[in-house]
């Protein structure tokens, strides 16, 4: 039975892996024996996170910084990975952005930046990684793509982030559409819709100024049906399931990981 959830020896790429949910997933993958590449826009932060994760959890964690809001950054990342690896077993599309402003003041750049990173970035990241994913994919052991959506793409967001919710709803539908095409090639695509997790993005939204460590996450968790925010075990555990033999028959789904916030909304 333990082999059902094994990702030992797999090669994984986690975009937006330098902090927040991406870092949690990368940490979980490392603990379960995967070789992990992480990417984020800021090179110094990405490098430091890779070093810290490898020191903490062992295994191999490699930083490849890239700006995934632009096609040239996506091509650069896919190219750099191709120079290092002959195949890719797991792609986690976690890189994302948001923008907050009142509806009367919401700027065009706040729409374009979010859509470019959250939707266009995911599509072209999958496209540019397809050669590596195809080399990994077999009938018995498919390659995996996990897109990180959001509960804000399912229910109405609580913040004035008018492009974020629609972008995540698009991610969920893009997941189904790409899953329908790629399952024929033994590449399985699913999405996770997280609820509240301790991250820079949520910290900025709830008024903590981007502070993660030492922030009052208990006060945020009290508003959740589970009376807490998410943990590394929650998001990494689900990602490991979707990447393992246990998740090999789950295709095109968007699975909430939110403590029940959608269920009670």
Q: Could you describe the 3D structure shown?
A:
It is built from 8 helices and 7 strands. It has 265 residues and is of the alpha/beta class. The chain has a single domain (2-195, 230-256), classed as Rossmann fold, CATH 3.40.50.720. A 7-stranded parallel beta sheet has the order 3-2-1-4-5-6-7, sandwiched between helices. Helix 2 (43-57) links the parallel strand 2 (35-39) and strand 3. Helix 3 (71-84) packs parallel to helix 4 (108-136) and helix 4 packs parallel to helix 5. It starts with 10 loop residues before the first strand and ends in an 8-residue tail after the last strand.
Q: Brief description of this entry?
A:
With 265 residues, this protein is an alpha/beta fold. Helices cover 42% and strands 13% of the residues.
Key words describing this protein structure:
7 strands, seven-stranded parallel beta sheet, Rossmann fold, 265 residues, alpha/beta
The secondary structure category is alpha/beta
The ordered H/E elements are: EHEHEHEHEHEHHHE
Tell me the CATH architecture: 3-Layer(aba) Sandwich
- Helix % is 40-55%
SSE blueprint and pairings:
Layout: E1 11-15, H1 20-31, E2 35-39, H2 43-57, E3 61-63, H3 71-84, E4 90-93, H4 108-136, E5 143-148, H5 164-182, E6 187-194, H6 200-205, H7 217-221, H8 232-243, E7 254-257
Parallel strand pairs: 1-2, 1-4, 2-3, 4-5, 5-6, 6-7
Helix pairs in contact: 1-2, 1-8, 3-4, 4-5
């Amino acid at each position: 039975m333990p082999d059902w959830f094994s990702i030992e020896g797999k090669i994984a790429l986690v975009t937006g892996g330098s902090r927040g949910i991406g870092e949690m997933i990368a940490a979980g993958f490392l603990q379960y024996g995967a070789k992990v590449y992480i990417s984020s826009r800021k090179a110094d932060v990405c490098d430091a996170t890779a070093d810290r994760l490898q020191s903490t959890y062992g295994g191999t964690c490699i930083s490849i910084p890239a700006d995934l809001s632009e096609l040239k950054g996506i091509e650069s990342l896919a190219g750099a990975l191709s120079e290092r690896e002959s195949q890719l077993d797991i792609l986690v599309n976690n890189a994302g952005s948001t923008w907050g402003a009142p509806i009367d003041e919401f700027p065009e750049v706040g729409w374009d930046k979010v859509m470019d990173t959250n939707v266009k970035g995911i599509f072209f990241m999958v496209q540019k990684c397809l050669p590596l994913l195809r080399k990994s994919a077999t009938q018995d052991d498919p390659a995996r793509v996990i897109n990180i959506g959001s509960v804000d793409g399912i229910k109405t967001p609580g913040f004035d982030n008018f492009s974020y919710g629609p972008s995540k709803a698009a991610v969920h539908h893009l997941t189904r559409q790409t899953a329908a095409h790629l399952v024929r090639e033994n590449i399985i695509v699913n999405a996770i819709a997280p609820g509240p997790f301790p991250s820079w993005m949520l910290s900025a939204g709830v008024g903590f100024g981007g502070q993660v460590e030492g922030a009052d996450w208990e006060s945020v968790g009290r508003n959740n049906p589970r009376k807490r925010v998410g943990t590394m075990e929650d998001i990494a555990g689900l990602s490991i399931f979707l990447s393992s033999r246990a998740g090999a028959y789950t295709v095109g789904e968007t699975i909430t990981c939110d403590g029940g916030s959608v269920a009670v909304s």
